[in-house]
Structures are given as structure tokens and as C-alpha cells.
Write a structure and sequence with these properties.
This protein has about 325 residues and is an alpha+beta fold. The chain folds into two domains: about 130 residues, Lysozyme (Orthogonal Bundle), CATH 1.10.530; about 170 residues, L,D-transpeptidase catalytic domain-like. Helix content is about 25%, strand content about 20%. The strands form two sheets. Strands 3, 4, 5, 6, 7, 8, 9, 10 and 11 form a nine-stranded mixed beta sheet that branches. It has a two-stranded antiparallel sheet with strand order 1-2. A hairpin with a 4-residue loop joins strand 5 and strand 6. Helix 2 packs across helix 5. About 40% of the residues are buried.
Length: about 325
């Protein structure tokens, strides 16, 4: 860990933000968050003036990457830059603007979608990379307008919620799931995607986001208990992971939007095999189901399922 060249974390953030905006970043706060996360607010670099962990010919050093569900230490080459500005310009040119056959993250509808797009385009291997960037943006560049959310019109109590049951609350804007007891006590909070294959504001068409509303967890398919921790490749296992819980729409949110088959599961074909079967596999968008980490399905959801009914309220972004 080196000495910071800036008087404060805020000073480093401000300089990165100004540079990114000058070079054409639609979301300069995202570029600033990347610089701060990758360099510890300017305290260390991977190559000369490389505050973004950009790989290429230059300085060779050790780094950590997330492969097949675990962190591994490797040696890699990192580009040397003449200045912080040159480093950020390289980022904006190749990742924010359209570059060759790649669509830049300037095309994303908001800064959080842009952060997810960076992960989807393999900028970083850390499965929590978008969430870490989002936290930094909320801290150093809070939004001036309130996020509009749409969710259930009713409560679990309207459907027989009783002692021993649990209530899950999914917020797709911040990509989390919170669990509450019948008494209203917060039990835990875990990463969760309620994201499909379209924009952040679309849940009315097939393969889009999970429709907002109250659900009841139905049947469970315990594939991990059936095949163990090292099964042979199977396309279904890769798609759905260790456990799959059917989700019954209690407000007609599936049927009224032409949707069907909404579940809560793990896996993720985009992770490949055996990456999709790893305990802490990266969360990738589904075709409209809730996606959790495999280990959280076993250690968090399954114990609640054994105690009583699980109701789930899904909240989505709205324009």
C-alpha cells in the first residue's frame, strides 16, 4: 500500500470525475468509482499510473481474480500510462464509448445498469463488482432525484401470513433480498437479481425482469442433494444451480403480464461449467426469475422453507 498523492479520498474522487467527464463519460461518477475501487483511492497502482487495473503489456505483478467460484492469485501484465488522465482516457475510449464491435456502457439507461454492463462485458471477475461500484457512487455522488419503485399492492398478511412464516423483500434497484420473521425482525440481507434480458424498467414481456408483486414459494427442486457437489455437465443444472423454488403469483402479476414459470434459483449459464455450480457463483441476469448464489439458497432460503411458508415481495424500478 503506497502513500496517497491526494489530500483526501474526496479529492481523488473529484479529479477522476472531472477527467472522466472531460473525455466523454456519460456516467463520470462510475469511472471515478472504478478508479477509487481499483486503486484504494489512489494509494496503489497495478502499472505506472494505472489506477484502473487495466491489463496489457507493461508492468507484471500479482493480482487476485475470481474463477470457478473462488479467488485465485495470478501474475498478469498491466499497462503503464504517462498520467492518471491518460489512464482514464483509455478506459472511456474502450469501455464507455462504442469500441470496435463492443457497445460501450454509455449506452446503459442509468449508472447502475452501466456498472452491471462492465461486469457482463468481463471488465472484472469479481462477482460483486457492480455492487461495490454502486455503493461508492451512492456515497460520493448521491442522486438528486428519488428512485421511483413499483411493488406489491397487497401484503403477505392478506394471504394468511402467520407465525413461523417468513417474508422476503427483493429490491432490484439495489439488487438485494432481505428476510424478515413474522414479527418483523430483519434476519439477513443477501445479493439477489430480479433481472431479465431487457431494460431495467421492463417486466411485461417474456424474458424481462421479475414482475413486481407478492409471491408464495411453492415446490422446491433439490438438485444439489440429488447430484452432489461435483456433478457431470448438465445444461439444466448449469441454468438453475443447486436449488429451484417455484414462485406462485398471488396478485396475478405473471398472468396479467403474459408471464409464466417464475422461480427462485441459482446457477447461470453465463458462468459456464463448472462455474455455474460454484457455491458463490457470480449473479447474472436470468429470463425473469430471481437469481441467488447457490450457497445462499442452501444456507439461507432452505432453512426458512422448512419452518413455514415463504412469501416474497418483489420491487422493481419504474420510470
Amino acid at each position: 500500500m503506497g502513500e496517497a498523492k491526494w489530500a483526501s479520498n474526496q479529492a481523488f474522487w473529484d479529479e477522476c470525475f472531472d477527467i472522466a467527464r472531460r473525455f466523454g463519460a456519460r456516467y463520470p461518477e462510475l469511472a471515478a468509482a472504478q478508479c477509487c475501487l481499483e486503486s484504494g483511492f489512489g494509494r496503489h497502482t497495478s502499472g505506472q499510473n494505472n489506477y484502473l487495473g487495466l491489463k496489457g503489456e507493461g508492468t507484471t505483478t500479482t493480482t487476485q481474480e475470481f474463477y470457478d467460484g473462488q479467488w485465485v492469485t495470478i501474475k498478469a501484465g498491466f499497462i503503464d500510462f504517462p498520467s492518471l488522465a491518460a489512464c482514464i482516457e483509455y478506459l472511456i475510449t474502450r469501455w464507455y464509448k462504442d469500441y470496435r464491435h463492443f457497445k460501450g456502457v454509455n449506452n446503459a439507461p442509468n449508472r447502475y445498469a452501466a456498472a452491471r454492463m462492465l461486469k457482463e462485458q468481463s471488465y472484472a471477475t469479481d462477482p460483486d463488482y457492480p455492487a461495490k461500484l454502486s455503493r461508492l457512487m451512492k456515497q460520493y455522488a448521491p442522486e438528486t432525484t428519488k428512485q421511483i419503485m413499483i411493488g406489491p399492492k397487497k401484503r403477505p398478511h392478506d394471504f394468511g401470513f402467520k407465525l413461523g412464516d417468513h417474508h422476503l423483500v427483493v429490491n432490484d434497484a439495489v439488487e438485494t433480498m432481505k428476510a424478515f420473521s413474522f414479527e418483523g425482525k430483519l434476519l439477513w440481507e443477501i445479493p439477489c437479481l430480479a433481472r431479465g434480458q431487457y431494460s431495467d424498467f421492463e417486466w411485461r414481456i417474456r424474458n424481462s425482469d421479475t414482475p413486481p408483486g407478492v409471491y408464495l414459494f411453492g415446490d422446491v427442486y433439490k438438485d444439489y442433494e440429488r447430484v452432489g457437489d461435483k456433478p457431470a455437465y448438465d445444461r439444466v443444472l448449469m441454468s438453475y444451480g443447486w436449488y429451484t423454488f417455484d414462485m406462485i403469483d398471488l396478485e396475478g402479476q405473471e398472468r396479467n403480464n403474459g408471464r409464466a414459470g417464475i422461480c427462485c434459483h441459482g446457477g447461470g449459464s453465463a458462468n459456464g461449467w463448472p462455474g455455474a455450480w460454484a457455491p458463490n457463483q457470480p449473479l447474472v441476469p436470468s429470463h425473469g426469475c430471481l437469481r441467488l448464489k447457490n450457497i445462499d439458497l442452501r444456507e439461507k432460503i432452505l432453512p426458512l422453507y422448512k419452518q413455514g411458508k415463504i412469501f416474497c415481495s418483489v420491487w422493481q424500478e419504474s420510470r
